[in-house]
Amino acid sequence: MAADVRLKLERDGVLSVTETITVPEGRTARRSVPLRIAVGDDRDRVFEVRSPAVSGRGSATASPDELVVALEAGTATVTYQVVGAVAKIGDALELRWQPAGGWDTAIDSVEVSVITPDAAKSVNCLAGPPGTNKPCTTADLGDGRGVRATEIGLAAGERVDVAVGLQDGAAPPNARVEEVSWLAAAFALTPATGAGLAALVVLLLGGAVLLWSLRGRDARAVAGDVVPVNVLVTDPSGRVAFASPDGVLPGQVGTVVDEHVDVVDVTATIVDLAVRNYLWVEEVGELDWRFVRRNPADDSLSAYERAVYDALLPPGADAVLLSELRGRRVDLSRVRDALYADVVAKNWFARRPDAERSLWWWVGVALACLGAALTALLVAVRGPALFGLVVAVAGAALALGARWMPARTKRGSALLEHVRGLRGYLHAATPEDIPEGDREMVFSRSLPYAVVLGQTDRWLAAFASARPGLYWYGEAERTGDLGRFARRFPTFLGAVGGMLAQAGHLRSLRD
């Protein structure tokens, strides 16, 4: 590539520039010229470029901060005018401009000519990387015919900087120097910081696409039509029984649906343990209940169910009042950990949802702190602090998005869809749908799922007029009055939920 640059200083101080650039076939070239140059810790020399134009294949644009020239293969002529190139340096007048520099490709040769209104007094031509003081290959006053300079072999990113001493009165000085706030400079939007911000946008969009791909199955499962689920099965003897989809237990249902172990999940598990004859519940006055050991924990219980059972009735205890449990603050951390581990073991989640949230939250917090520290450091050294800000914002976004990071497996998403069907069954089933001899069992086995899916009131109301009796709840077992049970059972659930929430290991809807 070759460049022939002609500079002509007008009497009014405007510098007219004509660049003839030859780009080899099959290549392109781009030049970026900063128009604000630091001349001190808090000062910038500001140039203004007017009327940039290209004759040939390419384009030229100028902003307050930058001149950009982009050329395709061939020979093109770039023209523009510069205001601010003439400065008073002590008692001397000087014209200064970079006729070449900021190109993204090497230049084989640069030829520069400078015409001034009066004969130039001196010339100083520097070439090489910014900040170096290497003289150009040649530079002279041209015996009164104008300044001429040549540089052979300019690498990509290197510049040619020409300073010409002028006669007094040759042109009015028009150099503009601005005071710059160091804080504003640190957060100034430059091509480099702009690229950093663009990278942040790409990162955030990439994260959104990743989340969309991970959560897409769940969104489709929630947004689609409710698929009927057959939870009533008939055994060979003709008896009708309740069977949950994929064998999911009440506590597991809640954790799969909202990715948290909640108070209601454990409350439903306690009811399920009673329904399955591990516990017996009896009323003690109006506001207390007793849990009685009916059968010991066996291999039929999952690890989290055994943890719930042991939390209520530790070894050696055959009965306990709910008020006593409230007073001793039951440790439910084992229950929480076992239930999270259980949904992973069942392949509904690839990793524990709480661990996944925690991991990404801490990564986000660490990144945000790193970004904040980097921002402070760059501000202190007057560097591009926007880079640190980009890192901090990315970290904050990651920390805020951590709650959405746990993703169900394909099997977990399928179960989520089936749970919607289970909720539909609980919302629509009536006693008449079930043979009279099987109503007590179906009502009881379905009740824990109604508790965890928010269908308790509807399920109780639907069966309030029936009289199947209950084998696991003392007062209902004696009276067979489901109407009274329907009035008392929500109070029981509230009391159990309050006791569990008091333990502080589980998320409560009241939090």
What is the compact description of this entry?
This protein is an alpha+beta fold and 511 residues long. It contains 14 helices and 22 strands.
Write the layout of secondary structure elements.
Elements: E1 2-9, E2 15-23, E3 29-34, E4 36-40, E5 43-46, E6 48-55, E7 58-62, E8 66-71, E9 74-83, E10 86-89, E11 92-101, E12 107-115, E13 122-128, E14 138-140, E15 147-154, E16 159-166, E17 176-179, H1 182-186, H2 191-223, E18 232-234, E19 240-242, H3 250-258, H4 263-275, E20 279-284, E21 288-293, H5 303-312, E22 319-321, H6 322-328, H7 333-345, H8 353-380, H9 386-401, H10 410-428, H11 439-452, H12 456-463, H13 474-479, H14 482-503
Parallel strand pairs: 1-12
Antiparallel strand pairs: 1-2, 2-9, 3-8, 4-5, 5-17, 6-9, 7-8, 10-11, 11-16, 12-15, 13-16, 14-15, 18-19, 20-21, 21-22
Transmembrane segments: 182-212, 359-379, 385-405
Domain DUF2207: 3-164
Keywords: Membrane, Transmembrane, Transmembrane helix
